[in-house]
Amino acid sequence: RQDHDVRVIELRDHVLSSLHRELPTEVIIEGNPLDISVLQHAGFSKAQVFVAVTTSDEDNLVLCYTARTQYKIGRTIARVNNPRNAWLFTETFGVDVTVNQAEIISSLIEEEMSMGDMMTLLKLRKGNYALVEEKIPEGAVAIGKAIKDLNLPDQCVLAAIFRKGDVVVPHGYTVFEQGDEVLAITDNEGAKEFLKLFSDVNGNLKK
Predict the structure, then answer these.
(1) Same structural domain for residues 170 and 119?
(2) What span, in angstroms and rounded, lies between the C-alpha atoms of 86 and 99?
């Protein structure tokens, strides 16, 4: 929706198979993200934002530190796999934002709240934004409609759709189905409008 030029670097064959089903070929870079030639092929030196989400905390730290100190990339985001390592993921080591798996799971347990059945997974930006999840119920307004045809709030970005065990990367022509689990990043006001898309045709929220 915002016309970003994105590249995804992946080495694992089984993940690549899934990515090629969901993303354009030109977006996917096959190779080791720790290989500088692979990073350069992906346009690392021109990137404005870099996201390190490998399964190794050490690799994620090295990648973010390299992005910040050697390539002067303005914003870095890192996945934290082991909560014991979370203290290392700071601006000192080139990390601006962390995605901590332990915190997400904790949020799933502690913050099943908000409006209706919408679940808050993670608070961002000192609580002004949140990663939220909503499952589309029978009779929802959004069923059968493409994302481009919905009046999504400006401050609401769809991150992923979980559908029958698969991950769907949302784009303008993606059509919602009953039972879809939708992940979005939104502010507090955007969340209210986002939730309306999952009310039934009479405007009633699911129970």
Answers:
(1) yes
(2) 10
